[in-house]
Amino acid sequence: MAASQTPTSPQSAPLVPREPFLTKRRAFSIVGLIIFLGFFAIPIYQTILLEMIGDTGQLMQQIVIGLTKGTYIAVIALGYTLVYGILELINFAHGDLFMIGAFLSLIFISLFGLDPKTSSGLTIFFSLIAILGLVMLCTAFLNAGIERFAYRPLRNAPRLAPLISAIGMSFVLQNVGIFLGDGLIWDKIAAGLGSDAIGRVADAMGSQSVAPKNIPDLLPNGQVFFVPASLRYTYKDLLVAVVSLGLLAGLYSFVRFTKLGKAIRATAQDRDAARLMGINADRTISVTFLIGGALGGAAGMIVGLYNGTALFTMGFTAGLLSFTAAVLGGIGNILGSALGGLLIGLVLSLSDQYIGTRWSNAVIFAILVLILLFRPTGLLGQEGGQKA
Amino acid sequence: MPNTKRYAITGGLGFAIGTFFLWNYPNLELGSALIGGLFIAALCLLYSAPLPDMVKGGLIAGLFGAVMTIVYGPEKPGVAIIAGMLSGLGAGLLAFQRKPQATPQAGAVLGAGAGAIAGAWTALALFLTAFVIAPAAGVTANDFAKHLSETVILADLLGLGSDILILLFVLVFCTITGALLGAAASAARALPLRPNIPLLAVIALPVLLIPLIDRAGNLLLLDALIPIYIFILLALGLNIVVGYAGLLDLGYAAFFAIGAYTTAMLSSPHLGINLSFWLVIWVAAAVAAIAGLTLGAPTLPLRGDYLAIVTLGFGEIVPILFRNLGGGPPAGTLTLRFFGMPIGIEQMDLTGGNKGINPISPPNLPLIGNFEPSNKIPWYYLLIIIMGLAIFFINRLRDSRQGRAWMAMREDELAADAMGINVVRTKLLAFSMGAMFSGFGGAFYGAFIGAIFPSSFDFSVSIILLCMVILGGLGNMAGVIVGGLLIQGADKMFIPKGAELFRDIADQRARATGGSTVGVSALQDLTQQRLLLFGIVLVVMMLIRPEGLLPNERRKAELHADDDPININSVAAEAEADPSVAA
């Protein structure tokens, strides 16, 4: 994150000479990629471009949707980028933490008894703020707990070990999602405690634990006043974008300007050196996971309210998207993942519209492979990010 | 006192998880669940106690036999015999694991003891089943006796009339066969013969006998065993990529899918091409190997986590391709144009879309005729032959120049490059060799199931395969096979059968108390919890035994380099002797 501090005298050549761009390996890889992507590429590009130029209104609409989606993808991507920056670990469980956030927000909404038809606007507004805080708190501590028990003991293990542990945690969290979404369990608890509020949770979850849950439509749905009517842009979209951007800005200034943020950056750069400077590395890593968890939970709530559904597998798909965004922007770089999130959101909505939803994941992954091939450190990443 | 901590953790975890799972079952009160949890905690402590290798090996293998017996017991008590044999064999191998220098005689004694313990556990589990579990699940004593005398044919031949006598006979039989196989396995391993043929013979005996016992006792075990073997074959292929070459592949199911779909397209009425299975299986393997090359090529410059993510992406793209290149009218119609001309890959219906391809022609042999879905025995032996060949070739491959190059690359890519290993070639070969074996697996799978669907190749398949490789021990084929047997056994035999058994017990109790079991929650449905179990297994394995159950010796040394007890002790002793060091 900071510039390289190595003092270089003019006559000393760089220790490792820069690799020429077209090495044998890269040549092989490009040929492979062309075989892999090429055969259906040309017709798709042709078709799509024609269609895009044909209807600019449609294109604008998709761009707006894409940017809105991009803001929350960026919030999830930040969770990946923070953890990767400090531990060089792909925190597979982060996507599922996001899913838990969506479920928790549904639970709190039912507990508070919020209903778009009966509750007043002001109640909804303040309750939602309170719920956002609660959800962020829960997921933050959940994430820090996961780090404490599943990753910290593996700090000095080979690199594969924490990654596999993270994949395991992701499966555990998915099942936690199934349990949270099980109305029968909530019924059992509600009957045990004799509580009406928990009974409402049970109703919201329904009897099918793996079915998608409906989250009540609590955000205002009207057209934003300053946008022309030809372009559909509701307050809901605006709120999602504002809250997400607020989170991004808050996090950026936290990492940039506070003492704790400085400690995070120092630990990310060189853990041992940071320790020598009196930084408690373990605590700093815990803080990073707390922040990452809070962001994941917040994103879960935002997405849950925006799309109106929660599903226990939503974390996996969203996780892949936002990890791609983080890599695209340059993993470890906060502004980079914000940029990557916006780009991925854009690509996603365009490919949903012009190629078809069922191809979108394939498109996203094709993009990921392309980035890693030509710019393994991402758009804003630094050189030498590809540590073995 | 690291041991106290270890016991506290294992006992506590066992208690918590045991109670949690038991409490979920309908009509099982918290009190009984707590008692069950205590029992499980006691078992966990027993298994983590420092017992002699013989006892420990027997206990571990015996657990397998006991679980299998209890789960299948109420309906198919004859399974106890197979379980006893297998667990005895496993116990013998396990007991020998840490004493490679033993003489054949000593090995035989060791194996016999362990095998007897394992066999006895299995048989005891049968008693438990007969007197407690079967009645609870609604199988009356009469029915159970009838099942038993039907399945244990040998007992019938000996003219053992009463049920207790048959039970006693099974007890003795399990213990003796367990001990014999355990002794044989240990002794065979101790023989100073390089190509371990005696050991192979000992292992082959029960493996080859299973279909016959199965047929005689009408146990229907093969339905579950064949998919398990297919997954083990796949895990062996994955082991080349992850275990030998050290390239973390999270999308291995893609190659499985490619093998299966190649078979389905070339050997079914779907596209009007109906080639013989014996040709198609080679084509499928070749196509999968080429796909491995094509995936391998773009990933050449990547390392570590990035490689994992790209392979994961490939694993996602391939099922999407198979799902979308065919089937009904596409959701968002997209007519592709190539310089103005519409080209219709959508119309061709290559892959059958979500509905998959059905049916796929079975293999055909002159003497046997078509392999019928109803008769699993020829399938079983065909698969055994494929697996035997795969194990043989992978073994030879590992010891070849290529295999050593893989391992050198796994240890340090830069150093390997500097030593003159062609890293590009080595990586590409690892991917394509690994993919080739999954091509064989996919071809067999397609023909065996007779229909394929894109949903059978999703991310969880890749993860389960990775679990098998890691649980058993990265880079060690015996370990991968054991890991595969355990995980796939749990996935395809223990968990579904156990869920059925629990359901029966719950129904029985509900009927007795006049309640109902309608509306089973997710917690109570054991089959839904399998991924939870895999998740826990992955995390716990990484925490307590990252090298797997049967580790590759070199890898074990790597992973435990810094917890050498001598160092810690000597530092502590120095500190005691010289207070200034401690301060």
TrEMBL record, chain A:
Its main location: membrane. The keyword Transmembrane applies. It comes from Herpetosiphon gulosus. It comes from the Bacteria. The chain crosses the membrane at residues 27-50, 70-90, 97-114, 120-142, 163-186, 238-255, 285-306, 326-350, 362-381. It holds the Pfam family BPD_transp_2. This is High-affinity branched-chain amino acid transport system permease protein LivH. It is a multi-pass membrane protein. Belongs to the binding-protein-dependent transport system permease family. LivHM subfamily. InterPro entries: ABC_transp_permease, BCAA_transport_permease. PANTHER family: BRANCHED-CHAIN AMINO ACID TRANSPORT SYSTEM PERMEASE PROTEIN LIVH, HIGH-AFFINITY BRANCHED-CHAIN AMINO ACID TRANSPORT SYSTEM PERMEASE PROTEIN LIVH. Keywords: Amino-acid transport, Cell inner membrane, Cell membrane, Membrane, Transmembrane, Transmembrane helix, Transport. The keyword Acyltransferase does not apply. It is found in: Cell membrane.
TrEMBL record, chain B:
Keywords: Cell membrane, Membrane, Transmembrane, Transmembrane helix. It comes from the Bacteria. The keyword Cell cycle does not apply. The chain crosses the membrane at residues 7-24, 30-47, 54-72, 78-96, 108-134, 164-185, 197-213, 225-245, 252-271, 277-297, 304-322, 379-397, 428-453, 459-487. The keyword Iron-sulfur does not apply. It is found in: Cell membrane. It is a multi-pass membrane protein. It holds the Pfam family BPD_transp_2. This is Branched-chain amino acid ABC transporter permease. It comes from Herpetosiphon gulosus.
